[in-house]
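Exercise 7. Given the encoded structure of a 615-residue chain, write a plausible sequence.
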């Protein structure tokens, strides 16, 4: 038995050790740390955003603006609009696992390092809005996984490399507003822009451009007596110019007609969008709405995919979720499941506007939520948007409970969310709670659904039976709602790191202890400055503890949770009226009959480990 356990340990741990060792030189130097420090040395950090980059650190994954894979490789550098100057070090090529590099809107100068071509896993490269000079390295054509290349608004010169033009995987290529020259090769990217390069020749003027680039033979001028020849040449040039001008007018007329047709076809589709039916959008339409899925429009990303802010042609703002692994489901199954989700209509559920489905893309379109998620508001240290006072937090809890109740008990067939947490509760313009991401698990292959959902979200938000067996039910969502209540009460700070008195992973034990000792004020978010309702706090914590019991059969249903929360909120609102107090006391739902069971159970240890970001 000991041999088997040792073998399993080696089997699972060896890849991680091997990956870690591959980062080290024979002298124990981390290649990626060295590369990042070289990049830092070539940049002028006017805003001191790179002060945390330390050569003595063995783990660059903790550095600002550096993202890493689970095994510790650097996979993203995201430093847009940071006031960076200087040059880009050729050492960038040593970050061999880099997938995303965002350096747009800085003041970086010098040439583009040819070593960028060594980043074979690169998918997104945005160097726009800088002062790069010189030619575009042809080595960029080696980046076969590149889908987004943005080099606009620099001072690049020379020809467009054919290797770059021939990249078939590019969704968008932007070389606009540089000093590029010469003929424009055929560009295979699905969308591209080369505007603002005054020395660049378009395909319709290639012959004229070529002739203009030839040197004049000053040693063999036309004879003075050849006036007839000069007249013939003038006629030929005049006819050629007229022909070119006419051709350009025809091309412009065709383009105008095509644009007019597309514009009105989009307008017709947008009209259908307002008819209250689930709209099927074209991929091109969503490309334009999100500025070709620009990184600057990313609202969030997680286990299901990336969410972009978009603006349709009718000026409606939307959130476009671009799903990962689109081939998990066939087109008929995907459309059927999407239509089922679209039938779930409730004030506290995120409405599905429509979807897009191509041979290799699956996208969902939702209304844009101006205040983001509850997690965004709780974590906002600068209070750039209205903060959540106690009354709003209790109102959010009620709204989320009503949305989950609808999914569990009023939807046919019922829908289990499987990932209830503050990051998936959105806020509309009235701070009404809107449950998002419900039903998306059904869009994935049912055979792998337990695997997919088990790696999403935060471990502390997932019921213990779901983690251990992959089996989920309505009570899985009830557990998540209990943790959501604690997030609203504590502002997430306690749940994320403890408050100094609590060992990591013992959050629920600590809450139970404070409940018994009647010291719940220690739980309350310090940002509330002591402004909270004691009665509501006591009841909310009691509900949270009931919802997070380790055995699912002991947890209440969402209808019981909602009734308990509504009764205490109603009671606190009308406490000064004796009659309403009595009615509220009669109606109040109590969990006291099984709370003793909670205290006798062995505690379930929760480790607050983030597995994926909010969506």
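Solution.
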């Amino acid at each position: 038995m000991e041999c088997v356990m040792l073998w399993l340990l080696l089997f699972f741990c060896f890849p991680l050790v091997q990956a870690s060792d591959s980062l080290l030189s024979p002298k124990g130097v981390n290649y990626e740390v060295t590369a990042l420090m070289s990049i830092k040395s070539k940049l002028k950090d006017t805003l001191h955003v790179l002060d945390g980059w330390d050569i003595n650190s063995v783990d660059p994954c903790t550095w600002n603006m550096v993202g890493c894979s689970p095994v510790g490789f650097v996979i993203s550098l995201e430093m847009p609009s940071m006031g960076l100057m200087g040059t880009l070090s050729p050492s960038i090529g040593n970050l061999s696992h880099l997938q995303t590099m965002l350096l747009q809107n800085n003041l970086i100068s010098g040439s583009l390092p040819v070593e960028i071509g060594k980043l074979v896993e690169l998918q997104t490269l945005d160097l726009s809005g800088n002062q790069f000079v010189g030619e575009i390295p042809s080595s960029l054509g080696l980046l076969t996984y590149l889908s987004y290349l943005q080099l606009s608004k620099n001072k690049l010169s020379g020809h467009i490399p054919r290797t770059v033009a021939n990249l078939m995987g590019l969704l968008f290529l932007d070389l606009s507003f540089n000093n590029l020259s010469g003929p424009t090769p055929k560009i295979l990217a699905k969308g591209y822009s080369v505007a603002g390069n005054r020395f660049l020749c378009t395909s319709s003027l290639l012959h004229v451009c070529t002739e203009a680039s030839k040197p004049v033979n000053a040693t063999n001028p036309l004879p003075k007596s050849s006036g007839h020849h000069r007249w013939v040449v003038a006629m030929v040039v005049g006819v050629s110019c007229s022909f070119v001008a006419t051709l350009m007018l025809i091309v412009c007329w065709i383009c105008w007609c095509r644009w007019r047709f597309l514009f009105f076809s989009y307008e017709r589709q947008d009209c259908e969008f307002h008819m209250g039916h689930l709209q099927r959008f074209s991929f091109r339409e969503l490309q334009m709405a999100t500025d070709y899925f620009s990184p600057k429009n990313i609202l969030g990303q997680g286990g299901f995919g990336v969410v972009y802010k978009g603006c349709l042609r009718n000026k409606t703002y939307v959130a476009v979720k671009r799903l990962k692994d689109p081939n998990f489901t066939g087109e008929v199954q995907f459309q059927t499941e999407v239509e089922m989700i679209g039938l779930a209509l409730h004030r506290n559920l995120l409405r599905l506007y429509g979807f897009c489905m191509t041979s290799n893309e699956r996208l969902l379109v939702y209304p844009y939520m101006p205040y983001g998620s509850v997690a965004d508001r709780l974590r906002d240290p600068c209070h750039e948007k209205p903060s959540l006072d106690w009354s709003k937090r209790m109102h959010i809890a009620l709204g989320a409970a009503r949305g989950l109740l609808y999914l569990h008990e009023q939807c046919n067939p019922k829908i289990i969310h499987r990932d209830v947490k503050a990051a998936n509760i959105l806020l509309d313009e009235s701070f009404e709670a809107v449950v998002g991401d419900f039903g998306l698990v059904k869009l994935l292959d049912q055979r792998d659904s337990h695997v997919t959902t088990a790696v999403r979200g935060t471990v502390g938000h997932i019921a213990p039976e779901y983690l251990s067996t992959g089996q989920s039910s309505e009570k899985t969502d009830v557990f998540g709602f209990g943790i959501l209540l604690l997030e609203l009460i504590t502002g997430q700070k306690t749940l994320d790191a403890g408050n100094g008195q609590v060992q990591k992973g013992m959050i629920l034990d600590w809450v139970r202890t404070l409940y018994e000792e009647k010291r719940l004020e220690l739980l309350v978010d310090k940002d509330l400055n002591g402004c909270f309702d004691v009665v509501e706090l006591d009841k909310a914590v009691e509900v949270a503890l009931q919802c997070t019991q380790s055995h699912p059969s002991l947890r209440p249903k969402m209808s019981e949770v909602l009734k308990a929360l509504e009764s205490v909120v109603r009671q606190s609102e009308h406490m000064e009226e004796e009659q309403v107090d009595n009615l509220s006391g009669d109606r109040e739902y109590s969990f006291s009959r099984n709370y003793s069971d909670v205290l006798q159970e062995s505690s379930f240890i929760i480790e607050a480990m983030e597995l994926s970001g909010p969506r």
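Remark. The first strand starts at residue 43 and ends at 45. Students should compare their own answers with the one above.
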